[in-house]
Every structure is written in C-alpha cells, then in structure tokens.
Amino acid sequence: MNAKTTTVSKSKPFTDLQALNQAAECLRTLAHPHRLRMIQMLLRGRYTVGELAEACQIANHMASEHLRLMQRCGFLTNLKEGRKNYYQVAEPHLAQIMHCIETRFDANNQ
Amino acid sequence: MNAKTTTVSKSKPFTDLQALNQAAECLRTLAHPHRLRMIQMLLRGRYTVGELAEACQIANHMASEHLRLMQRCGFLTNLKEGRKNYYQVAEPHLAQIMHCIETRFDANNQ
DNA sequence: TAAATATATCGTAACATTACGATATGTCAA
DNA sequence: TTGACATATCGTAATGTTACGATATATTTA
Fold first, then answer.
1. pLDDT tens across A28-81, in order?
2. What is the spatial distance between Cα B2 and Cα B103, in angstroms, rounded to a whole number?
3. Which residue of B has its CA nearest to A26?
4. Cα–chain-centroid distance for residue B14?
5. What is the pLDDT of residues B49-83, one digit of tens each?
6. E strands, chain B, where?
7. Where are the domains of chain B?
8. Under CATH, what is the fold of the domain B34-109?
9. ipTM, 2 decimals?
10. Domain spanning A33-109, CATH class
11. Are the beta carbons of B31 and A33 separated by less than 8 Å?
C-alpha cells in the first residue's frame, strides 16, 4: 500500500509520549519567524545579540529573550566576550532540519 | 552516524519575512504531540479520524480538529468513504522533516 | 422513518506565548 | 568613579492555542 518510496529510511516512529512531547516542545521553539531567522544566521556564523536583533529589526532585549529560549532547549550556546555575547548553534540536527524547511519555503525554489 | 551526511548543501536562507512567517506557521502546526503522532502514522498508511483518535487516546472530535488544522496548512488531504473520513499525507517534504525529528528524538538512538 | 455511527463545528474556559516598557546587571573607557 | 554601552530580567497586557462539552451534519442500518 504505502511506504517508503523516498530516501527516508532508518528512523522509527517514537510511540513514546515523552519523546513526542519533547519533539513538540523543540518544534514550538523553532516555530517563530525571528527565531528561524536567527538560526539561519547562526548556522552560517556567530553573532552578538545586537547583530541578531538588528537583522530581525527587533529590540535588543527581545532578541535576548528569543536566544535564551533557544538556549534552554539546547539549540544554542553562548560565549561572552567583554560586554558582547556571541551565540552559536549547538544542536547538530538543526542544520538538517533548517535545510528541509528552507527547500520547502524558499520563494525562489517554489 | 547514519546516512545523509551529504544532504545539507544547496538551500538558501530566505530573507523574505513572508517565507519566514509561513515556515513558522507550519512548524507551529507540527509542534503538537498528538499531531506528530498522527503524521507519523499517516506517513506509513492512511487512517480514519477514529483510528487516529484512538491511537492518540483522545476524543474523536479533538482528532478531527487537529486533522483540519493540518489540512489547512497543506500537510494532509482527506477522502470520505461512507461515513468514514480517511486522511493521508499531501506534503512531500513532511517525510524528510519527520525523519530528521525522529532521528533526533527517538529514545533508542540517544 | 428512527436509531446508531462517524465526523465536524461552536462556544468558551484554561493555559501558553509574545511584545514591550521599565529596570537591573555587567563591562569598558575616560 | 562616572557615563555609556550591551545584554538580561521583570511585570503585564494582548494575543493565540488547546481542550472539551454540547450540538450539528451526514451516512448507514434496522
């Protein structure tokens, strides 16, 4: 009937409710336009709170909160240098997931 | 670790705010444990509202609402057969995205 | 036609998320 | 030490999401 016509191969569905909840929580953290933008930038380099805020056109303290959220669920780590705080990607799966999302939503590819 | 080390390559970051909003909206739709479970099932076959509800241990009318949400953002389509309503996956990128999520969160792979 | 079944919709209460001004902390330079 | 800068935290109003009982629709069976 169904199944596996594509490249997708070895992963298993997690029946485990705890895994489902965890996955949902991480996806919720991902599911915000400014946070997506920040992750896209951080996958290509490291940036300060202020630089990310400017790119998203939001106040610095808002950027700071988004970054804290993403750090909490393990997406990012930070490194303070003087009064600047550099964030970078810590979760190795993020690149792959963002790649999926980018190929799906980039207007040029549609 | 596993396959697909090659895949991350050609996608571009979408500066476009509209694309970011769209992506965020779809991710929000994905970001619910019951909806994730339903998508996992539907990637492997087609099921009725009642079957999905039972698998998630929720009331039928709740399952119905989750399915409607996922249909709205293009993840699913439905096919009525008598009084049953079969849902199936319509968005081809879902398999790949779920694969990413499954490899990240399956307890057995941790 | 009436009852049973499967699904969908509505109204709403409970809860979560977001944005943002105000304020606090830590760092540097004069 | 003072002032400016970069970032973080708090309180809260506005908004969005979820769950769920009640009810509606559509289909099959008796």
1. 999 999 999 999 999 999 999 999 999 999 999 999 999 999 999 999 999 999
2. 9
3. B31
4. 22
5. 999 999 999 999 999 999 999 999 999 999 999 99
6. 47-48, 76-81, 84-89
7. 34-109
8. Arc Repressor Mutant, subunit A (1.10.10)
9. 0.87
10. mainly alpha
11. no
